[in-house]
Specification:
Blueprint (H helix, E strand, L loop, with lengths): L1 H17 L4 H12 L3 H5 L8 H20 L4 H18 L8 H24 L2 H9 L11 H17 L5 H21 L2 H18 L8 H19 L1 H23 L6 H20 L2 H6 L11 H29 L7 H9 L1 H5 L14 H15 L3 H5 L5
Helix pairs in contact: 1-2, 1-6, 1-8, 4-5, 4-15, 6-8, 6-9, 8-9, 8-10, 8-16, 12-13, 15-16, 16-18
Length: about 400
C-alpha cells in the first residue's frame, strides 16, 4: 500500500532516469498484485467491508457505466477507474490484521525519500529546467517530468515526515531535514497550491501536537528557529529569494485571476475561469430536471475542477458522493478527537491536497483522488477493530 501511495511519482522518475518503458505502470501493477489476501480472494471472501468502501466501489462502477452509455471511452480514465476497483477488492479481501498501518506510513516515507533524491537531482543538474523550457517552447514536446506530480509527491513526503517527527532520533532528524528539503523543492517548482497546503499541514500539526497552551517544547522551538534561520539564509541567495517572492505574489494574483478572469499569472488561471464560466452557462441553459439529478454525461467537458466536474457529469448524485467522501468526511475526522492520534493525523493530512484542490485541479475520477481517503478509512478501522493496537498505541498523543 505504501508503494501505491507514491508509485506514480516514483515511476515517473524511473521513466526519466532509466528509460521510458512504463515504470509507473509496472510499479502500480506490482503493488496491486501484492495487495490482496489471495486465499480469501480465491474463495470469494471479502471480510474487510464497510459502508465507505462499498460507496467508493459503487461510485467507480457508476462512472464506468456513465462512460459506456455516453459512448466516449477514455482509456486513461478507464484505467484509473479499474485500478481503484481492483485496489478496493484487494483491500476488502484482507482481514483487519493483514495490514499494518504504521508500516504503510513507513514505506510511504521510505519510498518518498527515494523520490526526493530523484527530484533534488533533477533540480541540481538543471534537468528539470531544461525539460520545462522544452515543454513551453511551443514545439509540442511532452516531458516525462510533470511538475504537478512532483509537487504532489513532495507534499505526501512532508506529511510522512510530520508523522515521524516524534519517533527515534534518526527518523526524527531525517524527517526535519526532509521537511526543509521538501519546502525548498516546492518553492523552486513554483506550485502554489501544494506549497500552501504544506504550510497549512505543518501549522495544523504544530497546533495538534505542540500547542502553545501546553508546556513549551524546547526542542520544537529549536527546530523552528533552525528552520527560520535556513529560510532567512536562503532568502539572502538572490535567485531563491526572487523565486520565493514570485511564488507568493503569483499565489495572491492567481486567486484574483480565477475570480475575475484576468491573466496576470499566465493562461492557466484565465482558462480555469473560462471553463468555469462555460460550465455555469451550460448548466443554466441546457440542464433539465433529469440533468440536475443525474448530470449531462461522463466528461461532458474537461473543467480542471473536480467538484464542478462531478456535478456537470453526474448531477447532484455525483456531486454529493464526491463532496461528502473526499471533502466532508476527511475534514470531520481531522477536527475530531481521533486526529490527536498521530497515525490518524497522518491519514487525515494525506487528504488535504484533494480537499484544497477540489475547485481548481484535476478530475474526480482518478485513483489519486480516492487513495488518501481509503488510507484514512483503513487507519480508522484499524483503531476501532483493535488491529495493530500495539503499534498504533506507540504513536498516540492524548
Amino acid at each position: 500500500m505504501g508503494l501505491i501511495i507514491v508509485g506514480a511519482a516514483l515511476g515517473m522518475y524511473m521513466n526519466f532516469y532509466f528509460g521510458n518503458i512504463g515504470w509507473n505502470n509496472v510499479l502500480m501493477l506490482g503493488s496491486l498484485m501484492l495487495l490482496p489476501n489471495w486465499r480469501n480472494l480465491s474463495c470469494f471472501r471479502l471480510p474487510f467491508v464497510n459502508r465507505t468502501f462499498k460507496t467508493i466501489l459503487l461510485f467507480q462502477v457508476i462512472c464506468i457505466v456513465y462512460m459506456v452509455i455516453g459512448g466516449l471511452i477514455d482509456i486513461s480514465l478507464m484505467t484509473y477507474l479499474l485500478f481503484t476497483i481492483f485496489m478496493m477488492i484487494g483491500i476488502m479481501s484482507q482481514t483487519p490484521s493483514d495490514m499494518s498501518i504504521p508500516k504503510v506510513a513507513f514505506y510511504s516515507w521510505l519510498f518518498g525519500w527515494i523520490c526526493i533524491a530523484f527530484c533534488t537531482t533533477t533540480m541540481a543538474t538543471g534537468a528539470f529546467f531544461i525539460e520545462y523550457a522544452r515543454l513551453h517552447d511551443g514545439s509540442g514536446y511532452q516531458s516525462i517530468l510533470i511538475d504537478l506530480t512532483m509537487a504532489g509527491n513532495i507534499y505526501t513526503f512532508i506529511v510522512c515526515c510530520l508523522y515521524y517527527l516524534k519517533s527515534s532520533k534518526t527518523k526524527s532528524n531525517l524527517s526535519i531535514l526532509g521537511i526543509i528539503i521538501g519546502l525548498i523543492l516546492m518553492v523552486i517548482l513554483g506550485k502554489r497550491t501544494p506549497l500552501l497546503i504544506s504550510i497549512i499541514s505543518i501549522c495544523f500539526y504544530l497546533s495538534r501536537f505542540h500547542p502553545i497552551s501546553r508546556t513549551v517544547n524546547k526542542k520544537a522551538i529549536g527546530y523552528s528557529l533552525l528552520f527560520l534561520g535556513l529560510i532567512v539564509l536562503l532568502l539572502k541567495i538572490s535567485d531563491f529569494g526572487e523565486i520565493f517572492i514570485t511564488v507568493i505574489k503569483r499565489s495572491i494574483d492567481g486567486v484574483f485571476d480565477m475570480i475575475h478572469g484576468t491573466s496576470s499569472t499566465g493562461a492557466a488561471a484565465m482558462e480555469r475561469y473560462r471553463l468555469r464560466d462555460w460550465a455555469f452557462t451550460y448548466i443554466e441553459n441546457k440542464f433539465t430536471p433529469f440533468n440536475y439529478l443525474f448530470g449531462a454525461g461522463f466528461m461532458t467537458k474537461w473543467l480542471d475542477a473536480p467538484l464542478l466536474q462531478a456535478y456537470l457529469d453526474m448531477g447532484i448524485i455525483g456531486f454529493s458522493v464526491y463532496f461528502y467522501y473526499v471533502i466532508v468526511k476527511p475534514l470531520k475526522l481531522t477536527f475530531s478527537r481521533l486526529s490527536r492520534n498521530r497515525i490518524v493525523f497522518w491519514g487525515c493530512a494525506l487528504n488535504f491536497y484533494n480537499i484544497f484542490s477540489a475547485l481548481n485541479s484535476g478530475v474526480p475520477y482518478t485513483h489519486l483522488r480516492w487513495i488518501p481517503l481509503i488510507v484514512l478509512i483503513l487507519t480508522i478501522n484499524s483503531l476501532r477493530d483493535g488491529s495493530n493496537r500495539t503499534e498504533i498505541k506507540l504513536c498516540y498523543e492524548s
